[in-house]
Amino acid sequence: MNKKNPAPAIWYVLALWISLLGACQPASVKNDPNNRALAKVHNKTLYLADLEGMIPAETSSEDSAQIINAYIERWVRDAALMYEAERNVPKDLNIDKLVRDYRASLIRHTYEKILIEQLLDSTVTTKQLTDYYKDNEDQFKLGSDIARCRFIQLPKRAPDLARFEKLWKSDKVEDFQLMVAYCNDLAVAKLLDDSLWYGLPELQAQWPGNPGELSSVQPGKKITRRDENFIYYFQMGQVIREKESAPLSYVAEQIKKMILHQRKMKLFDETRENMYQDALKRNQVSVYQN
Questions:
Q1: Longest Cα pair distance anywhere in the chain, in angstroms?
Q2: Distance, CA of 275 to CA of 7 (rounded, Å)
Q3: Alpha-carbon span 1 to 45, nearest angstrom
Q4: Which residue, among 19, 252, 219, 5, has the nearest Cα to 127 in the 3D structure?
Q5: pTM of the model
Q6: What angle do CA 16, 18, 20 make, to 5 degrees?
Q7: Contact of 154 with 188, CB cutoff 8 Å
Q8: Contact 75, 39 (CB under 8 A)
Q9: 142-156: per-residue pLDDT in tens?
Q10: Where are the beta strands (DSSP E) in the chain?
Q11: 123 alpha-carbon distance from chain centroid
């Protein structure tokens, strides 16, 4: 059976790993009589000098020995694995190029983070959210039903359930506040803010009734179901069906991320172009054509 080569990302990590673990001590350090060898695996040797700076000055001799022994145990295993990795690296793999590419990627990523922290405007106003939503509403069609609703899961043996049932059935504001306090203490799960939108499939997954039952509940209606251990309460509010446009409040966080992503890309493109133009002005750009 032909073996497939590992994904390119694996070889990037391996290249960096080989570059780091394969680094050798200078000959002058190796020949230092005070720098004794601690371990050897195949052609790799771990020297005492390799552990320099690893142990804090105030560490006891016993703790130092434990730290050194633990490091040696890790090192010999890593070295054994690296030996096999080097033997099995594809012959056409350019380790040096992978290390250069990976290093460049890390540097670029770090610089982009600096640009974001220093220059990116991370404030997204309500108007910007609304404008983006209006201009791209077709992108925000629902993949499933959502609803404003209330959902409560209580243990069957929860205390004073009769009192809770009265609070649940009541429409008085003061009774709702008492119910919230009860749920904060005893509910296994609760969704009590009916100004928020919730995915009905996610709620249905926790519901003991028939599949799809929650989607068929009429707005304003309250239902109760039981299983072996729990009692479930559900009240339907406003419903928006699959394939209809999601309300702005439901996708606001998603839109914010999209706006910020666009700003990041614009910032990177503008910075790249400005640096290029600056290099041109300084005569630091040369293009050699065939």
A1: 88
A2: 34
A3: 36
A4: 252
A5: 0.69
A6: 70
A7: yes
A8: yes
A9: 999 999 999 999 999
A10: 37-41, 44-47, 146-155, 189-191, 198-199, 222-226, 230-240
A11: 22
